[in-house]
Structure formats: structure tokens, C-alpha cells
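MOLECULE: protein
FOLLOWS: sequence and fold
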Amino acid sequence: MLMIQPVQAKEILKAHVAKLASVTDDGFDHFFSFFKPMSFKKGEVIIAEGDKVECEYFVIEGCLKSFFINDTAKMFILQFSMPTWWASDYNALQNGTRATINVDCITDAEVLCISKRDRDKVCSEIHQVEHFFRLRTQRGYVALQKRLLSFMNNDARHRYEELMAQYPQLYNIVPKHLIAAYLGVSRETLSRLYHS
């Protein structure tokens, strides 16, 4: 099991925030005080469809996946969350509804958890923290838009090459059938793309 020390986790989050916002040391200490460190084992479920969702998770170590399973039991992966990525069911978190997606652990994982209530509280107290979350949300929206456009415009080979160019480490962390589910192709098609 991974065991990241609180000081390490704090420094990882601080460096992540600093890329988008200038928060004073005292302000960051206050912000960090709202986070709860959590450890999960490979395969452990963090959010299950139907759950009440009150938190979002910042990944310190490991890899999570956010996914949906349709009525025919086909899995669709929305996102892989590697270190310094965030994960939750954001629709449920924002609107107070039940989860419609699942989040679980591809590997053992260490995360920092913050509740929506605490996030809203600290955003109202520290303008730069609110600024950070706003920019992070905008970047997430842009990435989602790019992914949707890629699905609409590109064939499986192009989507695979795009993913591997952007996140080469994924192929060593994530099982091939999950990469196939992310790309919307069969395991066999992914194998052909990988070996050709």
C-alpha cells in the first residue's frame, strides 16, 4: 500500500495550485486544512452509481477511473485520474443528486478529499482559491470539449495515437481493456492499433 506523508501531499497540492493561482502561505495552510487524506486499495470503489456525492478527490499517488455502465453492461470510461488530477461525479456533487457514474481505483491510491461545503467556504474566504477552482474548471471543460470533438472527427487509430502522445505513461499503468473502453473500441481493435 502506498503511504504518502502529509507533508508530501501538501507540497504536491501546493505546487499544483501554484500553476494557476498565487495563494499566500497562510492562505494555502488554511485551504489545506479542509482536506482529508484517504488511502484506497486497487479495485476499491470511491463513488458508486446511486451514492450521495459530497466530495471531490485530488490524486496524490495512483490512478482512478470514472466510468458509466449502460443497460447492456457495456463500460464507458469518462476519465483516468493520475497524480494531480481531480475526480468526482461533478453533476451529483454540484446539484445534490445521486451519482450516475462510478469512480474506483485502478491501482492503490492516495488522495486528498474536500467536501463541496468546505470548498465553497474556502472559496468565499480566499479569492485566489476561488480563482484556482474557476480556472481548473475551465481547463477541464476545454479538455472535455477536445475529447468530444476527437470522438466525432477522428477514427480509432487517431484517438489512440492522440491519447498515447498526451499520456504515454497510461499504457504502463492502465490495463489494455480499460484503455479500449476509454477509446470506445474493442480490446481486439486496441491490440491491432498497438501492434501495427
Summary: The first strand starts at residue 36 and ends at 40. The CA atoms of residues 154 and 180 lie 15 Å apart.
